[in-house]
């Protein structure tokens, strides 16, 4: 019997697919996936978390079973939609967790709203926040520029989603076998249509706008506790990411490096990821000493 309950929620004319597990009265955790994934990347994390927390994983607008994209893909606009979701569900003292693109959305939410208890950002560079400029010049991340080209990525990737996404899973995971054939097929299906591909590539087309938005907030401090997690196999020094977030105004930052994993931590090391998140929630939650 599955622990997961699926439903659609209407937010300002946009239908968003949610997957929930755990006690509805427990402290809530909202999970935002990255590219090229869907809510499904959180399934094993949710299995652990649901023993104690209410967990809510979202298909980002336009991806998977969320049929309508947010025009332009800006992270502020997506954060506003998540804010509406948290309000409609009446979630109190929620923790917002985002991986990759989801982490960018979580940061945008952190800077715009002050109504979540904690924020967790998993293995991503935040646009406009150091080491953003360094990352943009990394030739290994060529896809940032390619995905930002209007229409061309959709034209070339349509019909080849499985092979194209496999390239990233194989290149960026420490052990690519941890991203199972079932997961790969699910992710390819989540970007199966032209509209779904466009929604995913729009996340990248908005990065310059996201960088301007985030740069404008540098210097304004936030006291919301933030956990930044990186895979040991990911490129880049975690200290430079932590220093960038602190310099941008994140006053209470915890940084953790997870061994034996690359970029796709929720698929590669879900138990370790949940352990770090749980320790952070215990240390910074309402009952922390």
Would you give an account of this structure?
The chain is of the alpha/beta class and 289 residues long. Helices cover 43% and strands 16% of the residues. The chain is built from 13 helices and 8 strands. An 8-stranded mixed sheet has the order 1-2-4-3-5-6-7-8, sandwiched between helices. Helix 11 (238-248) links the parallel strand 7 (226-231) and strand 8 (253-258). Helix 7 crosses helix 8. It is globular and about 50 Å long. The protein starts with a strand and ends in a 5-residue tail after the last helix.
Main-sheet strand order equals: 1-2-4-3-5-6-7-8
Oligomer: single chain
DSSP strand content:
15-25%
Query: What is the total domain count?
Result: 1
Question: What form results from the Cα inertia axes?
Answer: globular
Name the average pLDDT.
Answer: 96
Main beta-sheet annotation: 8 strands, mixed
CATH topology: Rossmann fold
Please state the CA-atom Rg, rounded to the nearest Å. Answer: 17 Å
Treating each run of at least 4 consecutive H or I residues as one helix, how many helices? 13
CATH class: Alpha Beta
Q: Please write the string of helix (H) and strand (E) elements.
A: EEEHEHEHEHHHHHHHEHEHH
Taking the alpha carbons of the first and last residues, their distance comes to 38 Å
Return the CATH architecture.
Answer: 3-Layer(aba) Sandwich
Instruction: Please identify which CATH superfamily we are dealing with.
Output: Alpha/Beta hydrolase fold, catalytic domain
The low-pLDDT segments are none
Quick tags:
alpha/beta, 8-stranded mixed β-sheet, Rossmann fold, 13 helices, single chain, 8 strands, 16% strand, 289 residues
């Amino acid at each position: 019997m599955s622990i997961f309950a699926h439903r659609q929620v209407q937010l300002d004319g946009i239908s968003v697919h949610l997957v929930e597990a755990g006690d509805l009265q427990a402290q809530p955790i909202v999970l935002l996936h990255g590219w090229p994934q869907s809510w499904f990347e959180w399934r094993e994390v949710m299995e652990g978390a649901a023993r104690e927390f209410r967990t809510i994983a979202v298909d980002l607008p336009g991806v998977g079973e969320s049929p309508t994209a947010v025009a332009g893909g800006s992270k502020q606009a997506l954060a506003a939609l998540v804010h509406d979701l948290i309000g409609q569900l009446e979630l109190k003292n929620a923790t917002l967790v985002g991986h990759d693109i989801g982490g960018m959305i979580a940061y945008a939410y952190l800077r715009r709203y002050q109504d979540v208890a904690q924020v967790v950002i998993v293995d991503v560079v935040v646009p406009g926040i150091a080491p953003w400029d360094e990352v943009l010049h990394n030739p290994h991340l060529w896809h940032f520029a390619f995905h930002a080209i209007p229409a061309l990525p959709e034209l070339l990737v349509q019909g080849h989603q499985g092979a194209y996404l496999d390239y990233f899973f194989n290149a960026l995971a420490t052990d690519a076998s941890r991203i199972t054939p079932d997961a790969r097929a699910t992710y390819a299906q989540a970007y199966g249509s032209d509209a779904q591909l466009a929604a995913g590539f729009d996340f990248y087309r908005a990065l310059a706008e996201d960088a301007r938005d985030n740069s404008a907030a540098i210097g304004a401090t936030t006291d919301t506790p933030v956990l930044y997690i990186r895979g040991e196999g990911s490129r880049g020094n975690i200290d430079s990411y932590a220093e960038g977030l602190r310099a941008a105004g994140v006053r209470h930052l915890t940084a953790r490096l997870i061994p034996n994993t690359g970029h796709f931590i929720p698929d590669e090391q879900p138990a370790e990821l949940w352990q770090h998140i749980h320790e952070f929630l215990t240390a910074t939650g309402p009952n922390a000493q």
